[in-house]
Design goal:
This protein is mostly helical. It is about 65% helix and about 5% strand. It contains 14 helices and four strands. A four-stranded mixed beta sheet has the order 2-1-3-4, sandwiched between helices. The radius of gyration is 29 Å and the shape is elongated.
Length: about 375
Amino acid sequence: MMRGYLQLTLSQLRLFGRNRQVLIWSLFFPIFFMIMLGSLLGNDGGVSVTVTVVDRDGSPAARTLVETFKQAAVLDLSEASDLEAELGALKRADRQLVVEIPKGYGEALAAVSGGAGGAGSGAKLLVHYDQTNLNATQVGLPVIGQIADGISKGLTGYKPVLAVEAVGVQSLNLKYIDFLVPGIVAMMIMSNNLNGVAGQIASWRERGILRRMQSTPLHASTFIAAQITARLVLNAAQAIIVLLVGSLVFGTQVNGSWLLLLFFVVVGTLCFMSIGFIIASLARTPESAGPIAGLISFPMMFLGNVFFPIKNMPEFLQPFVKSLPITHLSNVLRQVMNVGAGLGDLWVDSLLLFAWMIGAFVVSSLTFRWE
């Protein structure tokens, strides 16, 4: 039995190595996806808004205002002199905000600070923005408003009676790539096992390979154990490669236990392998196994906390999303990698993932057929 188990395991690993489509889909495509999204979205440590300042006043007060803007980390500031050209660039979406300091700004500000201004008097600051750009509206305008409010308080002598002191509890300085890499690993585990097992087993059944295996002294448990071992080796190797690429290219790191991370890779593999066996049992042909697996895996890829946080999804989808196995798998991988969480911190996700694994294993055991 042990000899047959080892031979089947090695044979399965050789099949993986010889099948270029499997290698491209299961390893190189996720790495390409990670590098592409990480390059576009993952290197930025925070949100920034590009702002162009057009100073039409030229007074010392206007210069002080520009220097104050430069101190705001969220503003990517530049200066220009041609207002019409900048407004044209704003309409073409080449700018996010254009701040105009009008003529007479310094004089109006001096009048207010000297108490000479009447009711409703004061300096005006014109901020031109594109109403279709939510980033500029929700991030840039409040920052500029806070800077203007600070200048006003300084000039009028306003003294706040309540001081707010920010106390940081935990600073991880996480970027989008830190969110993305564990999700890519979870997606790869799901695709390799759910789609891969369903297609392969359905193909072997149609070609009579499973029937010939059944006629030998080979036990079903030996066959399934060899399949599990081969895919565990494949998934663990691929997960390590993806993590190393993420570390070398983007500087991501595993803050928690590598053993715990690999433990959840094993649990995820067993869970999605069981679901793959269920699909293989339901599919009558290899041609139907692929669409059924895709119908299940494709929604999970975009709803399972892989690319986007589930908190950003509509409320009516939240219960459904939180019930998916890939949601809990990506969450535990992310918590171990980014936060350094231990098994005791992840018991809820772990229990739900184990429930999926055991439930799918029971159903696959009842539905699996050799012919």
